[in-house]
Amino acid sequence: MKSRSSVRLYNVLFPIWGFWLWPSPLWLALLAGNFAIDSLVVCLAAGKGRRARVWQSSILRVWLLGYACDLAGAVVCLLVMIGADALIPPDTMYPLLLFPWNVLIALPGVLLAGVLLYFANRRWSFRRCGLNAAECHRLSLALAVFTAPWTMLIPLYG
After folding, report:
1. What burial class does residue 138 get, using C-beta atoms within 10 Å of its C-beta: 0-12 exposed, 13-18 middle, 19+ buried?
2. What is the DSSP letter of 129?
3. Where would I find the H helices in the chain?
4. What is the pTM of this model?
């Protein structure tokens, strides 16, 4: 009689960032949460009398550009990881994914995403809002600082 093959579950606890890799119902919550955060930042950074008009005419572009800039930052993080993998022996790669070394891998992507958020929002998101240059700068800077993908700095393991 043959013995039953055992089923082994390696990696039962899947990291939350892995849900970005394939479709999941969690995506709806993440999309709504990102939209809410972008809305909050736009409303708080806009002038008191202009909040509704600025939000209504810019939020869709702000939200979509935010995802595009975050994707560019994630690609930079991936390229840094690939470069580190090529330069560092495999047995020493695991400590690079722990704090504080993970910051060296993620920080270039976070900074790039923040800079892209600033310039993309300044160029495309607020041109139809009737804002002057100083107001556009303030809104773009607030979005770049508060909506940059800071969660990339969370260690992957540990």
Report:
1. middle
2. T
3. 26-45, 51-87, 93-96, 101-120, 133-146
4. 0.78
Dihedrals φ, ψ of 12, to 5°? -70, -40
- Phi then psi dihedrals of residue 150, to 5 deg: -65, -25
For 88, list phi and psi in degrees, rounded to 5: -110, 135
Residue 122 CA to residue 135 CA, distance in Å, equals 10
At 29-81, the pLDDT tens digits run 888 889 999 999 999 999 788 899 999 999 999 999 999 999 999 899 889 88
CA distance 96 to 84: 9
Q: With contact defined as beta carbons under 8 Å apart, do 98 and 155 qualify?
A: yes
